[in-house]
Design a protein that fits this description.
- Two copies of one chain form a homodimer.
- Chain A is an alpha/beta fold.
- Chain A has three domains: 88 residues, D-Maltodextrin-Binding Protein, domain 2 (3-Layer(aba) Sandwich), CATH 3.40.190; 76 residues, D-Maltodextrin-Binding Protein, domain 2 (3-Layer(aba) Sandwich); 85 residues, ACT domain (Alpha-Beta Plaits, 2-Layer Sandwich), CATH 3.30.70.
- In chain A, the strands form two sheets. In chain A, strands 1, 2, 3, 4, 5, 11, 12, 13, 14 and 15 form a ten-stranded mixed beta sheet that branches.
- In chain A, strand 3 and strand 4 form a beta hairpin.
- Chain A is elongated.
- The two termini of chain A are 26 Å apart.
- At the A-B interface, helix 8 and strand 13 of A face helix 8 and strand 13 of B.
Amino acid sequence: MKVGYLGPKNSFTFQAANELFEENNLVSFASIPLTIEHLENKSIDLAVVPIENSLEGSVHATVDYLFGQTAITVQEEIILPIRQQLLGLEEVKQPQKILSHPQALAQTKQYLKTYYPEVSLEAVSSTTFAAQYVATHPENKLLAIASEKAAREYNLKVVASDIQDNAANQTRFWVLALDKNRQITRNTQDKKVTLFITLPANLPGALHQVLSAFAWRKIDLAKIESRPLKTNLGEYFFVIDVVLKENEILIENAVKEIELLQAKVQRVGTYSINRFT
Amino acid sequence: MKVGYLGPKNSFTFQAANELFEENNLVSFASIPLTIEHLENKSIDLAVVPIENSLEGSVHATVDYLFGQTAITVQEEIILPIRQQLLGLEEVKQPQKILSHPQALAQTKQYLKTYYPEVSLEAVSSTTFAAQYVATHPENKLLAIASEKAAREYNLKVVASDIQDNAANQTRFWVLALDKNRQITRNTQDKKVTLFITLPANLPGALHQVLSAFAWRKIDLAKIESRPLKTNLGEYFFVIDVVLKENEILIENAVKEIELLQAKVQRVGTYSINRFT
């Protein structure tokens, strides 16, 4: 079995994928669209991509790619705490630059502002690349923000550990497949259903009606979010995550009712939540 | 009067600001947080920043900065069509690289995939920087994606015009001020109210109740969006844009009712919409 993931090796997506799959099944890709494209042309069996971070919000590249792609479904969700480490060849008091991926820089903004207010930050393509670059440029007095795994891989010291601004920083990842009946579920306790809903016409009444269909059935929503339809300013679709208990038939009834209201509903997946610490 | 904006000169935010204010009042800043910080410490009177693009969605840097900053209010909204031009010193059949800001690269993704599938794309800090770099590096066979103004400023040829993927590509900008009573409104027809709403407890019932307060009063919502509270995964606040007609008192009643439900409501602004073509 081949499992594609948003690389490079030792990225947070790699760590997430490695929680469910053996390392020798994993294949790295350079971007989220590339990873999912390889799933679509069947050169891989599963794709692991990030979907949401607790600080930065949704990963739009994933949400926007999946919108309208009805052949792909979510098989599993993986929730991983994101810990960022400040790495260097040695403890540098006044580094010339600090390198990392833009999301890692965003997740450590307060820390960097407090301890390195004058140091210029450089956005690079991945946290792994940042660690590798620092390891191979000893003359430059650089630091990188990356994972503990990257520190071990490139023989870097952890200059400061767990520097993420929020202790509860977590990222959700999705395991995607083409085969709707594939089951790799390990966790049967904690399940969700994700729906993309496009409303027929004007927002206020329609969204209220959609939420009513869930509310009066006492169906819990874990999340509701809007994304632009990329048509005109002010036109959106909605990402709705529904908590699945012993109410699967109620959820299906709610969805049918919503479809009767002329809304389009894309069933993105019914999946288990796998939490790691 | 000093009006700060997200620069550099000739950026799309510059163009938006320049629709309402004289060029010699405009002061450029390098980032959205920096622009708003200068408003807060009163070194500028107004700040112009992007808030949403019709393809890319909300500008999180703006939304997240304003959340909780109750001293700042939105005075005006500016809506501008975003046209992207492919610029070069000459028509290069096989450019070595195409440079632009990440958002401009995202907005021309389909065009680049069709016409330049093999060319590497380089993300730089602004479209203006991309144009300037191309103009000053004739030996490198580069192209830039930037505005017509940038083409004129740096004497570049428009190799292909209006290459944005969507003809209806528009961006909303906000004019921010500290003084709630300041009035620079030119357009009195087309008005909105923006609210940031933090729900008291569990999402499903509470959000449905909030929307009910608007729905039964037949108040139109132009937008509803969630952003992470940056506490735990799954905790959000909501950005709600309300269409203001002759119903200001109804909106205020709805807000009061929502506050009685223990939701926190931040009144981000009541403002006119200024559309340009």
